[in-house]
Amino acid sequence: MTEEQSAKGALSCSGCGIQLQSEQQDKPGYTPVQALEKDPVICQRCFRIKNYNESSSVTVEQDEFLRLLSQIGERQALVIHIVDIFDLQGSVISGLKRFVGNNPVLLAVNKTDLLPKVTNWNKVKNWVQKEVKELGLKVEDIILCSAKQSSGFDRLLDAVATHRDNRDVYVVGATNVGKSTLINRLIHDYSDLDQELTVSRYPGTTLDMVHIPLDDGGSIIDTPGIMYASRYSELVSPEDLSIIMPDKPLKPVVYQLNEGQSIFFGGFGRFDFIKGDRQSFTCFVSGRIPFHRTKLERADELFATHAGEMLAPPSRENLTKLPEWTRHEFRIAKGSRSDVFISGLGWIKINGDTGAVVAVHVPKGLKVMVRPSLI
Which residue ranges does the record assign to the CP-type G domain (predicted)? Predict the structure, then answer.
């Protein structure tokens, strides 16, 4: 450790923000003593994620996440809440108002690059506005963006300039919504700092608040991602996470179904058309997930016999690590223009106007709901 570092006291990882330590290898912040001489210094966990694409079981407890977030309400801050357009209802932080108090909130809707190119963006923004209002979230502005493609950044920066008023900027969001990617773009384009946050597909990559100084004396602060067990991305293995999380524009798959037919999404879930006139259903899920159509009367037996093999991924071994499936039934009203949404897996759009009774089978605890159609 250098004299300058010693004078500053405890070191923090420049990748995830956790306080560094060299005593307990299985605890957050571990880094070998010799690595402390490097500048910038990162923990062993971030090193393995960056260099070997390895995941880690080291995470921060939910209570600690909430404690860190609650600090925002005690300060003068502008809050950027990043959500995932692919998993909007699953990635909105419920009760955000409790944590941020009267501080203004900007909603950055990330991963818009995943939506089909023919998407009407004004309709998407209006849809987001209605949905977040329904969820009880009051925001100053909504900015559609893609950290991956750097689109929407000018609008986001303009919104920050309009609403910041010399406040520090806190960036909050659930895990895997792209917080660190977005902040790294800001660092790269608008700062001379030789620092980069750890970016990966693994939940909980940022473990503590990471402060990035601005020229005017303020800071951008990246906060840990909230981990919600109601999202598929928190339940699956690292290998399956890369399968269910799309990284390319969604290619909708349309099925014409008669009542009494089912669609399997690999072994991740099942959609049943129980009752209604023949109609079409559009599936918006990752292109890496295979579909299998069958008769509803055969679906239970098919899953019991072929889950993890013909109905895969996940593998049979990974499937046993997930909660048992539970059934959610919905009655779709005539002319309602609805999606059946499965948090972290995607959604099924009901295209018919005549109404339907449908059901979804997924691991217990996942958020499943009917919502107005996004597209």
Answer: 66-229
Structure tokens at 358: 């449908």
Q: Are 100 and 77 in contact (CB under 8 A)?
A: yes
| Residue 281 located in a structural domain | yes
Give the chain's domain count. Answer: 3
Dihedral of CA 375/87/347/98: which sign? negative
Reported as a pLDDT band with limits 50, 70 and 90, residue 195 is low
Dihedral angle over CA of 307, 310, 314, 320, nearest 10 = 20
Its domain, for residue 268, covers 243-372
Q: Residues near 286 by Cβ (< 8 Å), separated by ≥ 6?
A: 243, 244, 245, 246, 250, 346
Provide the β-strand partners of residue 21.
30
Query: Per DSSP, what are the bridge partners of residue 357?
Result: 275, 331
- How many other CB atoms are there within 10 angstroms of residue 10's CB atom? 9
Report which of 348, 264, 347 is spatially closest to residue 311, judged by C-alpha positions: 264
Token pair recorded at residue 298? 């055969």
Kindly compute the dihedral angle of the four CA atoms of residues 217, 149, 290, 242, in this order, to the nearest 10 degrees: -40
Q: Measured between alpha carbons, how far is 48 from 54 in angstroms, rounded to an integer?
A: 6
Cα distance between residue 167 and residue 75, in whole Å: 9
Instruction: Report the b/e string of 80-92 with b at 16+ CB within 10 A.
Output: bbbbbbbbbbbbb
pLDDT single digits (tens) 70-110? 888 888 999 999 999 999 999 998 788 888 999 999 999 99
Q: Is 138 exposed, middle or buried (0-12, 13-18, 19+ CB in 10 A)?
A: exposed
CA distances from 61 to 225, 228, 288, 328 (A): 11, 12, 31, 30
- Phi, psi (rounded to 5 degrees) for 196: -145, 135
238 in a structural domain: no
Looking at the DSSP bridge assignments, the partners of residue 269 are 265
